Amino acid sequence: MKFLCVSDQIDPLVYSSNAKERFKDVDAVLCAGDLPLDYVDFIVSTLNKPTFFIFGNHNLNEFHLYHGRSADILVPNLPTRKNIAQTVFKSFGHGADYVGFKMLRVKEIPVTVAKTNKKTPLLMAGVSGSIRYNNGMNQYTEFQMLLKLLKLIPGMIINKILYGRYVDIFLTHAPPRHIHDLEDDCHKGFKCYNWFIKKFSPQFMVHGHIHLYDSRAERETLCGRTNIVNAFGCIIIEMPENI
Q: Calcineurin-like phosphoesterase domain: which residues (predicted)?
């Protein structure tokens, strides 16, 4: 199964009249942040594939629609706060699922467990944002991000019980510390991500945030059982349908 991964810049290969033909064989799209939601909208409408996104530390004009009390004001008569993000999202028509600080079981993308030959949902977890560097929106300290990761654990324990694994894809904006990250205050990765991938062993961690201007720069790194991929611009990753 193929995933188109994008982040941080509008890539001319994707934002193209030929995109539907070029990416016709992808099964889903993963958007790793710092992208205008109009671009996400274009991807959804052009490729017509399941699309998932998180926010980075830029292009945050609509971040408040998915977090905080402003969503209650803009979308009245919600039965519960649990579905604020989904309802706001549908109201604004971007057509992609927001994975920020949540865990998703994606039934429309089945994964077959080889031992049992049983079809199960694709298991995805995601977090938005970057390390705190100037107190801007969607920036977090190590401790704050660790708390957000801990809130994902109950859902992943249920995954382990039901499906025999915790998570398949971990979608973030920032990278783990000392893997693909840089040493300036803005582009350091999170140490708690290193703990997360070691503990829960997703097949892929897809991130953005680190711009690649050198074709020789490292873009994919295997860490334990997890392939860590920098989605800057665009890249296609492949995951076996049988695991």
A: 17-212
The backbone torsions φ and ψ at residue 230, rounded to the nearest 5 degrees and listed phi first, read: -85, 120
- Compute the Cα dihedral for 218, 60, 17, 21 and give only its sign: positive
In this prediction, residues 30-47 reach a mean pLDDT of 96
Q: Kindly report, residue by residue over 90-124, the tens digit of the pLDDT.
A: 445 478 999 999 999 999 999 998 888 899 999 99
Residue where the block lists tokens 């990416």:
23
**106 CB contacts (<8 Å, ≥6 apart)?**
28, 50, 52, 121, 122, 123, 124
**Taking a C-beta distance cutoff of 8 angstroms, is the pair 130, 139 a contact?**
yes
Closest CA to 43 of 16, 62, 3: 16
Please tell me the distance from the alpha carbon of residue 140 to that of residue 160, in angstroms, as a whole number.
28
Q: What is the pLDDT of residue 243?
A: 84
